[in-house]
Amino acid sequence: MSFYTSLNGLKNAQTDLGVIAHNIANAETNGFKKGNTQFADIVVNSASSNPRLAQGLGARVEAITQNFSLGPIEQTGSALDIAISGDGFFAMRAPDGSTLYTRNGAFDTDGAGFINDGSDNRLQVFPTDATGTVTSMTPIDAQIPPFNGAGAEYAGVSVTDNGLVVATYADGSQTNIGTVALARFVSPTGLKQVGSSNWESTGISGAATFGLPNQGAYGSLMSGALERSNVDIAEELVGLITAQRNFQANAKAIDTATQISQAIMNLRT
């Protein structure tokens, strides 16, 4: 029994090492949120057994949770680099029509003027009128027209802390493109990771609730800045050492159990 208990411990330590390695590998990934491995003990017990004689059978992985604490903010100077100072997520429409959520605000424009993340996922905004007032709470794709109504060519773009995307044209005029749509979740730790610092909603996370920047806990926006990974290398290295020691200890316990079993088999009557 001790052999299998320690074997479970080896597998758990291996899982912990994998999660820590993934965190370290993404220490420079914008918008990445680190994971933490949580374990639970396994106890053999029944209604008729003596609780003072209950025997443990080791541990199991209970969950790998995501830590959504705010990462460091880095100034970049690019107008379409946007960081969220709050709990909100950018909403992105994927090519297949599904909605993804991200904290990575490194955006750019494609040939058609759509603001995207470089993977053809388009930033979602709320439609606004000429005064900057939101006219609908249904998100749409953010698209910058290459020319304004007077035929002037697109010259640049800016994003206010309220999320208003404003395009400037060669004749000095400005056009409101929309207000950045932010999403929140009842349980963000229930979001499903899909790679590239993107998440999908699940039944655990609940459906997304959309809101405006500077509204409640959605957070304000910082143009010209990016949120870096919230991985702390020093903390991960300490966890790496701990996981390695756990692995070694369980391996030693297996070796000891093997030696005891060998000794029993070598007994002579």
Q: Tags for this entry?
A:
single chain, 269 residues, alpha+beta, 2 domains, 2 helices, 19 strands, Flagellar_FlgE/F/G
In short:
With 269 residues, this protein is of the alpha+beta class. The protein has two domains: 102 residues, no CATH class; 155 residues, no CATH class.
Q: Could you describe the 3D structure shown?
A:
The chain is of the alpha+beta class and 269 residues long. The chain has 2 domains: 102 residues, no CATH class; 155 residues, no CATH class. 21% of the residues lie in helices and 33% in strands. The chain has 2 helices and 19 strands. Strands 5, 6, 9, 10, 11, 12, 13, 14, 15, 16 and 17 form an 11-stranded antiparallel sheet that branches. A two-stranded antiparallel sheet has the order 1-2. β11 and β12 form a beta hairpin. α1 packs antiparallel against α2. The two termini are 25 Å apart. The mean pLDDT is 93.
Fold topology:
Layout: H1 2-25, E1 35-44, E2 55-66, E3 73-75, E4 82-85, E5 89-93, E6 99-102, E7 108-109, E8 115-116, E9 122-126, E10 140-141, E11 154-159, E12 164-169, E13 174-180, E14 182-184, E15 192-195, E16 198-200, E17 209-211, E18 220-223, E19 225-227, H2 233-265
Antiparallel strand pairs: 1-2, 3-19, 4-18, 5-6, 5-9, 5-14, 6-16, 7-8, 9-10, 9-13, 11-12, 12-13, 14-17, 15-16
Main location: other
Organism: Croceibacterium selenioxidans
Pfam family, one: Flg_bbr_C
